[in-house]
Amino acid sequence: MRKKILFINFGGLGDEILFLPSIISVKKEYPDSEITLALEPRSKGVGTLTGIIDEMMFADIKGKQKYFELFNLLRVIRKKKFDIVVSSGSNKFISVFLFLTGIKTRIGYDSGKLSRILLTKAVLLNKNQYAAKMYHDLVRSITGFNTELPEIEIERKPCKSDTVLIHPGVSLMSIKKGMIKTIPAEVWAEVTEKLADKGKKVIIAGGPDDKEVIETIERLVPCEKYVNMYEKTRNLKELAELISGAEKFLCSDSAPLHIAVSLGVKTYAIFGSTDDKKLIPANGRVVPVKAKNCNCPLRPCLWERRHTTCETLECLNISSDDVVEAVLEQ
Prior knowledge:
Layout: E1 4-8, H1 13-29, E2 34-39, E3 55-58, H2 66-80, E4 84-87, H3 93-101, E5 105-109, H4 113-118, E6 121-123, H5 131-136, E7 160-167, H6 172-176, H7 185-197, E8 201-206, H8 211-220, E9 226-230, H9 236-244, E10 246-251, H10 255-263, E11 266-270, H11 276-279, E12 286-289, H12 320-329
Parallel strand pairs: 1-2, 1-4, 2-3, 4-5, 5-6, 7-8, 7-10, 8-9, 10-11, 11-12
Helix pairs in contact: 1-10, 7-8, 7-12, 9-10
């Protein structure tokens, strides 16, 4: 009998990509299963990167109508008659929500005594590891497969030697929430010009969220020193294809980082307040670029100790020379 399996993972696009290994492992265990993913509308682009998801359901849990959205999602889930539900997140409400779905097998993180009563499998949450592994802990009881890295399905482009593809931006939502996770636009412009002067074929990419930083690069760097692919990629899949053809990829702590990881492209990522050990695999293919002389005792602080970055941003005191040195030496 074909199993209907529901995955619930609310978060940004990067979170959805990091969640893919869990879905892939379960699909390998149940190859004839029907996979549904419930997520936030802002992250729907993950569907262009894989064919493993048969259906997506959306709930805008960050909006003003979040309780209505969740109620409507619950109503739809109950009608679908799923066999298994796997949900991320450590909120105590999640176990209640999963219980109300009426699904027989309910898997989530152990958030206390109530979760151990309402879930059929309450999984210990271990945040001190690569996030893809953290999510994968959820499905170990229902699959013998272990998918370590995200896997995406695209048409890979031939690798062009001496190319450095730069995706400098981060999501506007993170900026609006006071989470500064990358170096200033002027520093990105310096990096672009210096890499070009070192003989690298520099390509700039980005989408609507990256308008400000791209415009700064356009204003400060002569256009003949780089190829401007800003808004030339129409969706996430086309961006992934562009990344696949680069010899090296330079980016911020954002969703494109996790795309590059899935493609195995040599990647250099700017890290400030977030913990690189939790966001990139320790396989040598991804190099975290961090401030050399940051003495902040709270670093990394974002998510663990605070929900916004501080005003000093000492952890992002990374010069353009530091970034160029990292890209050229490793």
